[in-house]
């Protein structure tokens, strides 16, 4: 009885390996094109996402500016020698001409370059070398208070009376030589410095801490201050 030779199956694996290698080679060949195609397909979505993000940022910035502008104070310094009631009082004042409340910070007053620290020193420096303590005038706090829109704070008021006539006349001229600057903030803690009567306020990160401060003694608003 003749023996049937066994079939050899190993050589058949060679064509399969060759096919896999060919497919892999083709895939690698077209991989850059596939990658570019995927990128081009996703590019509009990426552009749309970036556009939406930018629009959201611009809208948020515009909203913040509208909120800030809607409560922005605008404080200016002023001086006068009379009021609506006909009183001839020389006044130094801060007025909020903005649309939001102002939180008053430090104030600095200089006369001929010299810093003034108190109301009595103010009159003594400019107008009354020896009479300042005996003169009668009124003062109001000018730091750490809130000023409503349209409100005016007179931090110094000096009336014209027979007893003050001489000093009043001098002060009426010398008040124009005063250099006054003040810092104030909004309710959002945005701060500005105003200087003089006509200058536009300058935005600052926070109120300066190196000024020669003018201070008002709340316990002695009516002079004779010792």
What does this structure look like?
The chain is of the alpha+beta class. It folds into two domains: 16-70; 75-223, no CATH class. Helices cover 34% and strands 24% of the residues. The chain contains three helices and ten strands, in the order H-E-E-E-E-H-E-E-E-H-E-E-E. The protein has helices spanning 13-70, 119-126, 165-174, and strands spanning 75-80, 89-96, 102-111, 114-116, 138-139, 146-147, 152-159, 178-185, 191-195, 202-204. Strands 3, 4, 6, 8, 9 and 10 form a six-stranded antiparallel β-sheet that branches. It has a four-stranded antiparallel β-sheet with strand order 1-2-7-5. It is rod-shaped and about 125 Å long. Residues 218-226 have low confidence and may be disordered. The chain crosses the membrane at residues 33-57. Keywords: Membrane, Transmembrane, Transmembrane helix.
């Amino acid at each position: 009885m003749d023996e049937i030779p066994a079939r050899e199956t190993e050589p058949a694996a060679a064509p399969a390996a060759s096919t896999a290698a060919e497919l892999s080679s083709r895939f690698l060949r077209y991989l850059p094109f596939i990658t570019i195609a995927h990128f081009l397909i996703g590019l509009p979505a990426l552009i749309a996402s970036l556009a939406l993000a930018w629009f959201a940022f611009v809208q948020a910035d515009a909203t913040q500016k509208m909120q800030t502008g809607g409560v922005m104070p605008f404080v200016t310094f002023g001086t006068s020698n009379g009021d609506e009631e006909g009183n001839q009082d020389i006044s130094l004042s801060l007025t909020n001409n903005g649309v939001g409340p102002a939180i008053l910070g430090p104030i600095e007053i200089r006369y001929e370059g010299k810093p003034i620290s108190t109301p009595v020193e103010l009159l003594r420096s400019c107008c009354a070398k020896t009479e300042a303590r005996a003169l009668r005038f009124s003062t109001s706090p000018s730091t750490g208070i809130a000023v409503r829109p349209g409100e005016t704070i007179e931090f110094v008021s000096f009336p014209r009376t027979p007893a003050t006539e001489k000093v009043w006349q001098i002060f009426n001229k010398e008040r124009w030589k005063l250099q006054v600057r003040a810092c104030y903030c909004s309710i959002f803690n945005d701060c500005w410095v105003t200087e003089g009567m006509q200058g536009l306020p300058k935005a600052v990160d926070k109120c300066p801490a190196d000024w020669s401060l003018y201070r008002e003694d709340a316990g002695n608003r009516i002079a004779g201050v010792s």
